Records
---
Amino acid sequence: MSQGHHLAYRSGQPLSVVADYVVVGTGAGGSMAALILARAGYQVAMVEAGPWREAKDYPETMLGVMRDVFPDWGANVAVGNSILPIVQGRLVGGGTVINSAIMVRTPDDVLVEWQRDHGLGDLFSHDAVGRVQDEIERELSVEDSKVDAGAHFGRSSQMLLEALQGREMEAHPMRRNVKGCQGSARCLQGCRHGAKQSTQLNWIPEVLERGGTVLSCAPVSRVELKSGRAVGVIGRFVHPQTRVKGAHFAVEARRGVILAASATGTGPLLEASGVRSPALGQYWRAHPGAGVIGVYPDVVDMYKGATQGTASIHHRKDLGLKLESLTLPLELVAGRTGGAGRQLTGRLADIRHQAMWISAVRAEAVGRVKRGLFGAPSVYYRPTQRDLERLRKGVSLLARAHFDQGARSVRPGVVGLPFELGPDQLHLLQQAPLHNRAWTWVLSHLFGGAVIGDDPRRAVVGTDLQVYGVRDLHVVCAAALPTTLGVNPQHTIMAVAWLMAERLANQDRSGYT
Amino acid sequence: MPIRVLNRAISQAISWSLCAIFPDNGPIPGLTRQSTCDRVEQVLQEAPALLILGLVGSWVAFVLAPVVTIGWPVPALLLSNAALDRHASKMASHPWYWLRQPMLMLKTVGGAIWGERPEVRIALGLQPFDSDPGTWRGDFEVQADSSMNNSGPS
């Protein structure tokens, strides 16, 4: 009987592993592809740059999250004419550990766009994506957030739902992959209750049970190419706390290498591996977002309930807006709140009366990612004027919604405006400066850098699922997605990875490779 | 040893600026020098060089900026408490982006340290934190499940 192995940081002798497929990255895309291939009977090795942490290992504090969960203490940023923080997870399970467990099906218009403008044919047809998303939802216990569950939904989410529905806008409780959510509003730190069904709780263990191997604390430095074919990956273990480099490792792939190292990692890894393509690192996109805090006369307690409970895609098609409730940890609210000194601590005294709602934009801006200093990703990204206009509309709408719910003031966090606006000052927000530097943006949903398409001048991955010019090298994460979605991408990334892995397995069986 | 001494000196300098940004305000406790210094020292030991560089650069900007923020041509280290408070506040909302960014850096780290303090959390009516475990899984083996088909095409 074969065994599955988890191999963590080590020093000393180099480590060699052989598998049919090696999957780089263990987030939504990587773990999904690994699972499908393992279920098809292949030996799979997964390689993850960060460590494997269980629920009991998750940090409590924000500095702990920066140290233990974020890559480089959260120092990853996109730079254009402003600095935009990028939120990602670097641990086994990747972004699925630190996201808000949101599962939104891929909108049909996106699938049509991929088919029409990127030549993807029936690769991601409505029926195929629907079929696998049904399965994914069943496996991950996806359910609507329960509005009637009181503290488990959260007052902030409930107020946003009521406010938007009161304006006759579409708004809904989010569908989430949770089992027994206790409403601790700590999705961002990793769910210590084990309620969020992130991939290291289910899919990765199943890969191990099927005889797979997981290497953690193992950043890949290069994909090995031989005679135009990907034959494995190499790298060096890194201690998760001291960052001391340990043993070298090499994973030989008999059938193929699958990259799922995220929209910031995959492009630079291909670049480091010697892959050349005019589209490499290009077409990098995001959903930048900004929040507006409402301050209420009564206690809201946004730290009780789902981290994110309510969403609206009412303005997704016309304005490219996604409106959501969000609980930001006190430590981050403290950094974001305007002012400093006694003024700042005074402004944080009413934290239990605050509710934060965010507007994310399906931005039209297109950036790029490349390998920067010391191999770290370097991202150039600059939201356009239209993106800013849309963001301003979204934030204005949320501010109005706050006042509908009885907020006494709102805090938009826009430089050039008063720190706090009353109901009669909303016009100021509608005229807020349209400059990136005036807004407090965050990039959380990232796409591209190694996109799929039928034109090698505009895509890195072909419709045969191989990187142009390299056999048996595939990309199954957000880096491959050719457009933004306008909804949370986790479900789409999983579905795309499933379908790509399924096709690889079927192609192998029919002697494709 | 000299590196530890340097680390301590940098921690003291940075913690001074963080205490100025997050001071006591009535019933809301601010940062205190000793505990902040210890936490900053820990951060300097564990954080990557880029973050440390950013923190030190931000501290330098904070020290040199009073001439721009409040029109006093003296380092912030020499300001009275009231003037320091005014300088911090003005720097946080200054029209120059590259002056606000160092403040944002200091606020991000300072906010993280301030918001985790049990005294602060209790004063704000929030649950205090346990300590961070800082642990991870080592090697382990999983016996393959015989009910699963693991004899694939390879």
---
Amino acid sequence: MTHQTDTGTRLLRSRRDLIAGAIFLVIAATFAWEATSYDMGRLIRMGPGFIPLALAFMLGALAIGVMLVRSDPDEHEGGRPIPWRGIVLVSFALILFGAYGRMLGLVPVVFLATLVTALASRRNSVLAAFGIAVALSALCYVIFKLGLGVVLPTIGPVFGPFEVI
Amino acid sequence: MELLSHLALGFETALTLQNVFWCFVGVLVGTLVGVLPGIGPTATIALLLPITFSFSPVTALIMLSGIYYGAQYGGSTTAILINLPGESSSAVTAIDGYQMARNGRAGPALATAALGSFFAGSVATLILAIAAPPLARVALNFGAAEYFSLLVLGLLVSISLAHGSVIKALAMIVLGLLLGTVGQDVTSGTARYTMGFQELYGGINFVSLAVGMFGVAEIFRNLEVETNREVGVSQVKNLWLTREDFRRIAGPVLRGTGLGSVLGILPGGGHVLASFASYSAEKRLSKKPQEFGRGAIEGVAGPESANNAAAQTSFIPLLTLGIPAHPVMALIIGAFILQGITPGPNVMTDQPALFWGIIASMWIGNLLLVVLNLPLIGLWVKMLTIPYRVLFPAIVIFASIGCYSIDSNPFDVYAIVVFGILGYVLIRLGCEPAPLLLGFVLGPLLEENLRRAMIISKGDPTVFLTRPLSASLLALGLACIVIALLPSIRRKRDEVFVEED
């Protein structure tokens, strides 16, 4: 662990605390705002809004604390790049799975979602992604369809006459 | 002897063909995820929760527990062979284990880890069996106020042992508690924070939250900088220990077991703390401290025994009080709840077969682990050659199928995206996700007990301070926070946890 004290690191660190605090504050405000529309009740018989509102206030106070109190020196943060490509592709694959899983069926949706997910790593070529997708489709068919009998059809209704339940 | 008849019941339950089979699957999967860096037991148990819905409660819990302690075994293999802890608690094992492997003693290092773990696991399970009933009896007398204070204590202790900023950890707990309030309010039936989504009436899906925060967020972390891992040792020969080795590891294993059993009960990161504590104790006690860091077998034996003992005893607060010591235990609580059982002191009296069955299965599981880890070591070495770029798509797909199959509901899969991104952002900002998960799981219990305590006390909030047991529990919680904030402890804590990442 190196105790770096140059201003750059310190600025970065305090910026992280500020952002973290701001996120907590926004969440707290949202929860508090919504809580005011629920019945508060009284201490003896708390309504559904009582505890969420109290918690939201606590979170708000802690959020301000996070912004003000200098946090621990954190060594290996900062310079690491945000994997935008990974985040977008993995999220897209999950949404794809949720939205079209039923229609496409287990094997096709696993194939497509794996293909998209695998490309999230820069180390996977398109060909490698295809290979992983084929292998994982077969594996999931064996484990989840044959082994555990998931509700998803093997090949979904969208394939018309080729549908396999 | 009461204990013997309980254990007989336990073995009767655990030794059915079905339960042994799923126990085996559990420890096998546990070893696998322990061996593979990049997937932890938390994400794995979250992923496999949906699969266990169709099982009977005892089978489901036997398997899920197996994953947890199996991962502690597997983690040491990776630590020894590639100097990368598969599991945070094996970080210490990597120090001397990897040096042993480089000196051509990978075999004895692995054997020491496996045998030490087996011994520690078996002894700690016995401690669990002996300590659980009296503790549960105490807890049975708890009223709503005591329960509330106990839950608060559990949450507070978990941060004092966590990594990083205390105030951020507190904020994460409260955020978890808030997320736990989403859904229909039990008492009044009001839908809270559902934003018009029918799907949110039952609350945020626990599995989606755990998989997102611990599985997907972790994948995003690993995609930041992609590295190749080197397997330094491709073949492991000569697994047997010499007489001299046995003599050297006996003391460390015994001490490690003792330390681990005690520290495992602490909420937070008992098993991580236990392995570090054991390592420094062995180093201090050793006549040749200069050997530590250069392949001292004691440096493998002690910590490995300690973390496995702790893995076993961390079930004590869960099984007796219904309080999870760390995220994995929070997930196991989730498994109890999904099976329609409220975890806590009642489990032992209401469902003795379940309770003692889980305990007995731990011995069977530990035995299976020795078999899995020693003769089959070659297989695990092969597993290590699977690159991460192949592994993470499988994690994402298993997560999708798992979450989808709970209710056949696309909403649960979308929720993974939300929590994956939220988790990633928060982790990058230095906020650990573990306290959030604990808060989320304990939130509804906390609210229920708070409201009940208020009704009983006729709206008098001082009840938590006037009832002695409740007051002492709260005082203990406050003390934990104060201690965690003390500068000297903070420095120590940073030293202890610096290796964890």
